[in-house]
Amino acid sequence: MRTTRRVGAARVWSSAAVVSLILADIWMVAAARPEIGSVSLVSEVVTATSTRAAAPDPGGVDSAETVPGTTVPDPAAAAAASVDPPARPGATAPAAAPAAAVPVVERGTGQFTVLPVPALATTGSATAGRVVRYTVEIEGGLGVNPVAYASTVVSVLTDPRGWQAKDGVRFVNVTPAQAADGEAPTLRIRLASPDTTDQLCAPLLTRGQVSCHNGRNVVLNARRWLLGADAYGTDVTSYRTYLVNHEVGHGIGHGHAACPLAGQAAPVMMQQTYGVGQCTAWPWPRAKSS
């Protein structure tokens, strides 16, 4: 009889301990999700730490693969907020895209060079509209061709399908000489290593995976630049177009959008790095012509 009572009491104490642990876990999860508050930051923020390896870079990439027991953020819910939430415990990072020809350097030098914009890369020039002055910058040690990077950025910004025509802005480049003389750009479009991206994007949690807009900084994560995302498959060039347009879109005042209707082109302000849902990938601000 005494043995039976002891076993019963032990079971009661064990059940109470389990309940206490569950309550503690709930409290810790709630405490780990503070609101960012009044900080004016917008980005495609990763919501996990787990990734899948993609040779030659073992660090993982930025699309929509899930791990058992984890979730991917709902693009429609994310579109309702002007500031992305911090990372949630148990969520997953986007999945792997094609491997890059150039390995992803996890940590660059931390020093940025303002690049000249190749004149031949300009695809159209706006003569009116709200002036947005910008620099094109690259972190040292990435192994990325700076001329090719600068050419891509300026060609995207000046394309007739871009923000100049869509939003009535006029992008004006700040040259290396002007920047050296102290001329401050509206936006600094910077290609950065994953580690440096995390530093420049803080307090947003990019976790070395995704890109952001933070103040004057439009931070393009070199991991994304080299690897792309599943929504674009092997078409990394189109993904880069989307990446520039999306983060610059935040820089000129646009928030996130959601897929409007199944089968339609995804809005450029949709978080396409995480996937496009029932929409189809589209990298430009202007609507896709039928």
Which descriptors apply to this entry?
Collagenase (Catalytic Domain), disordered N terminus, alpha/beta, single chain, 7 strands
Question: Can you describe what's shown?
Answer:
The chain is an alpha/beta fold. It has 2 domains: 1-31; 48-290, Collagenase (Catalytic Domain) (3-Layer(aba) Sandwich), CATH 3.40.390. 30% of the residues lie in helices and 12% in strands. It has helices at residues 2-31, 75-79, 146-157, 163-167, 176-180, 194-201, 222-227, 236-251, and strands at 41-43, 112-115, 130-139, 169-173, 187-192, 212-214, 217-221. Strands 1, 2, 3, 4, 5, 6 and 7 form a 7-stranded mixed beta sheet that branches. A hairpin with a 2-residue loop joins strand 6 and strand 7. Helix 3 (146-157) packs across helix 8 (236-251). The N and C termini lie far apart (82 Å).
How is this fold's topology laid out?
Blueprint: H1 2-31, E1 41-43, H2 75-79, E2 112-115, E3 130-139, H3 146-157, H4 163-167, E4 169-173, H5 176-180, E5 187-192, H6 194-201, E6 212-214, E7 217-221, H7 222-227, H8 236-251
Parallel strand pairs: 3-4, 3-5, 5-7
Antiparallel strand pairs: 1-6, 2-3, 6-7
Helix pairs in contact: 3-8
Structural class: alpha/beta
Task: Output the radius of gyration.
Answer: 22 Å
- Total strands: 7
- Helix/strand order: HEHEEHHEHEHEEHH
Poorly predicted runs: 1-43, 45-93
Give the amount of beta strand, in percent.
5-15%
Distance between the termini: 82 Å
The number of helical runs is 8
Q: What is the count of distinct domains?
A: 2
CATH architecture type of the largest domain:
3-Layer(aba) Sandwich
